[in-house]
Amino acid sequence: MLWGEAELNATARFRERNMPNTGPRRWGPLMMASLILAAGLMLPGAARAAENAPSGRYADLPGVKLWFTDTGGTGTPVVLLHANTGTSASWEPQTAAFVREGYRVIAFDRRGWGKSIADPVGPQPGSVAGDLDALADHLRLDKFHLVGVAGGGFVSLDYAAWRPERLRSLVVGASTGQFSEKEMQDFAARIAIPELRKQAAVYREVGPSYRGANPEGTKRWIEIDEHAQQPGAPSQPLRTPNTFAKLATVTMPILVMAADADLLAPPAMMRTWAAHLKGYEWATVPDSGHAIAWEHPDVFNEKVLSFIKRH
Q: Which range marks the domain in which residue 24 is found?
């Protein structure tokens, strides 16, 4: 076995975590062999994660210099679509977990969000679905899994109806779907909390249990939100309005996932639009607010991975 930097670093990390700091010591053959064995047992997953750490770069696409991250590799691609309050950085809790399961993970900042830069020479404002399709062409993706949460869920449905031949499966989490039907608009009006939209996004999107129990995670969520939509950047419209009739044309395997404590897209609302799909699987994430993938990544990841592995 040849040892390189990754292996030596793994050994050092193991030693730091598991050996008391009692000052300088001499490492005997038995102790060194134990460390090497322990590090070797950790290497397959650690090495894969290190080799497939996401690298960020720009893709010059029509109307936009699109910032995206791509873990690379030969695994089946999974493309992640962030919420209106997020960027590609919102998927930090998912990327490593999906890579460990052998997937190639791709995320991007939508036009006017994060690091993506609209090109005034090109067509504006375009659509997120159009930018996604251009990125898939740029990366020469064949079929891929598509995961969208909240505002990313609007786009995932828009794209699935337009380009069904490119998708292996679709996951929509914590999303109203932005449907045109009066039934959905009336539902949203009935659950609207007065003045909530005037509050900071963290109060309407991140559940109280998470805010109370995880101050560091909440701080990081706020940091990402503060670098989400650029000042003055317009929101891109859907390629075509989302409607119940449009939903009926979406026939690839679909997982609809609701957050139990979501103030914006509660389970009953999501069941209302999901009922117009020809077929779908249903899941919920307990005690989660609208930030479903961020608040309970272990639960979210397990449910998504269990689903996409079958497709």
A: 5-48
pTM: 0.84
* Nearest C-alpha neighbor of 149 from the set 33, 291, 307, 266: 291
Integer Cα distance of 178 and 163 in angstroms: 19
pLDDT in tens, 195-227: 999 999 999 999 999 999 999 999 999 999 999
Per-residue pLDDT, 52: 54
Do 199 and 271 share a domain, yes or no?
A: yes
C-alpha atoms less than 13 angstroms from C-alpha of 296 in its C-beta half-sphere: 24
146 in the same domain as 257: yes
First-residue to last-residue Cα distance in the chain? 36
Contact predicate 173/260, CB 8 Å: no
**In the predicted structure, residue 31 carries a pLDDT above the cut 90:** no
Is 278 within 8 Å of 74 (Cβ atoms)? no
d(CA 54, CA 68) in angstroms, rounded, equals 9
